[in-house]
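Let's do one together. I've listed all components of the complex below, 302 residues spread over two lines.
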Amino acid sequence: MAATADETEEHADASAPDPRPRRSPGRIALAVSLFGELLITVGVLLALFVVYSLWWTNVIADRKADRRAEQVRDHWAHAADSGPGTLDTGDGIGFLHVPAMGNGEVLVEKGTGTDVLNDGVAGYYTDPVKATLPTSGKKGNFALAAHRDGHGAKFHDIDKLRDGDPIVFETKDDWYVYKVYSVLPETSKYDVKVLSPVPRESGRKKPGHYITLTTCTPVYTSRYRYVVWGELVRVEKVDGRRTPPAELK
Amino acid sequence: MYGWIWRHLPGNAWVKALVSLVLVLAVVYVLFQYVFPWAEPLLPFNDVTVDNQ
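Okay, and this is what the predicted structure of the assembly comes out as:
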């Protein structure tokens, strides 16, 4: 192998003297071509990073989320005899259905750290404000976050939500039907008040059963946060065939 | 740089092309598997939560 390589090189050397200028480029020419190659490399790297963050992370996250969702459904099916109101021991507590976003069901898990959200799920806040789970029955705010792009991009189409659109949260035993009543298209990422049990920025003053969806905006960046608020309209019992409520048909 | 690598690959043009392809795939694999996941949290593209920090 090495011998052939040497041979070709010698061969190239031997034939070189004719096209003289091509054979020994000057130092500057070498430096310029090296610089050019480095620039091309950086460009390709950046392009690959875009492919990675907008496509590959979705592939990975969706795969993981699907598997987890299956586990949760399995768990529900097999633990049917446990009493009502008992929270699942698994990570997934339920599914979010938002017809306006047109992305089917989104698994909801505890926490909003990147380790949770990167698996293609929506997470409910535990910090800086603890979300009130609808299953608790208490008044409060069920605050959720999910990715806008990459990692499943579960809230990519959050801007499609309008006042009056349904947001349905499905647990083992109940369908919680919320209606959107307020949207904040842009706010600071430090605006933790949007998660308050009574989110005053949404216009509500009294305690109630609220749901808050947060993600980043504008798309492909995370300069600001996009917030959607909904209020519980009714709770439906899940029947034997898990017939979805009217809003999801 | 790439010219230098090409000259140091063994075999004829076809073998070189094949080896280059394998090298490129290996680099892409390492990037997607290790480098990008490491770099991503350091870049401000994907923070979706509101918080105090």
